[in-house]
Each structure stands twice: as C-alpha cells, then as structure tokens.
Design brief:
single chain, alpha/beta, 5-stranded parallel β-sheet, 3-stranded parallel β-sheet, globular
Length: about 250
Amino acid sequence: MTTTGTAPAAALRALHHDRRPGDPLILPNVWDAACARVFADAGFPALATPSAGLAATLGYEDGATPADEMFAAIARIVRAVDVPVTADVEAGYGLSAKELVGRLAEAGAVGCNLEDSDHATGALRDPREQADWLAAVRAEAGDALVINARIDTFLRGDPGLDAALERAHHYAAAGADCLYPILAPPEVLPELSAAAPLPLNALAKADGPAPHELGALGARRITFGGGLHRAAMTALAGVAARLRDGQHG
C-alpha cells in the first residue's frame, strides 16, 4: 500500500475506543472541500465522506458515481483538511482488494466503509464471502486503514439481531475495526452493542435520537449518511426562494 504511514489511521482508530456512554465519536459527513474545512475548523477530530452527498455534488444518483470521480472527490476533501478522513466507498466498485486499498491510499483516506449489499442484485452478499473480501482488504492495507464494515440486514428488511450479529462476528474475525448496522432501530442498540465484538457505528437521522442519545444507547461512532448534505440543500433552497422573491438571501 502506498501510504505516508500508519499514524493517521492509528489516530482515527484510537478515537473509537475508551468512549464514555453518551460521548460517541461524531464524524460529520462532508461532501466537498469547503464544507470539510467548516467542520474541521469547528474542531471535529476526523471527518467522513458520504456516498450520497458526493454523488449529488457530482451530478449522479447515489450508487452511480464512477469510481474515478469518487476517488478524485475524496482526494480533494483530504487535501483541504489536516484531520483524518474516512471514505464511504460503497461496495468497492468492483475493484480488487489491492486496487481498492491503493486507490484509497492515493486519495489520502485512512478509513473506509464497505457495505455487504451486492449492487448488481440488490441483495445481501453471503456473510462468509463478504468476510473473505474484508480479510483481503485488511491483508493489503495492514494497519494503515480503518475498516468500517457495514451490515445491511436492517436495510434489507431483516429486523432480527441474529442475522446482524452473525455478520458482525464474521467481519470482526476478518479484521474490521468497526461495525455499521445501518438503520438498526435505536431500541435494539443496547442489546446489539453488548453482543457485538467491535464498536458500533450508528446513523443519526434528523427525526431520530440525537448523537449523544445514540451514544448512551451503545453506539461509539455516529455518522449522518447524506443527511447533512440534504439539510444544507434545504437551507440553500430557502436562500434561492428568497432571492427569487427579491429579498436578501
């Protein structure tokens, strides 16, 4: 892996541990260099990129961004700030583990989300096959990449804990650093976090519990998906409407 060393990944990895209940690691999802600087200047110790927010910024539907454009956008964000950046690279864009790790290193990202949905079929990947993929990424990256293994069982309509925890244990054994059971209901987080072998990433939604409340329920890492981008676009739509009506923005 082409990298400047493992220190930035080690710093990001350390932020996941020894968290007090109600004090999770909050990772704002940033979609361009300008907003990345805003959040870094506000004092956040690390940032994340959202596939949906970047896709919208680049003019694509979520899941349809070409890999070259995604990695170029991630690189621009990384260059703009001096804090670690972890990138949502969806299901890996069909790249080999070596290619994926190399592209992340070239972009300067020291972490990544990897989801276990098959984009070709829209179904969940076999957990053992996904674990093998994660293990290959870990082998290529060594300690220089923080792997957030996304678990899509709740997203795909399976509300049970057993399916999520089966994947959690496979992915932990494969070398993941964090587990992301996206759309897990807040009420299952205490039981899920107690049984999971790694720190949990929870998705904060505008109509759901606040980040500190999700932390109190057991999440150690909070991300926002495309939510911050949508909120910013809603605010911008208000500016546009006022300008249209001849008012100050």
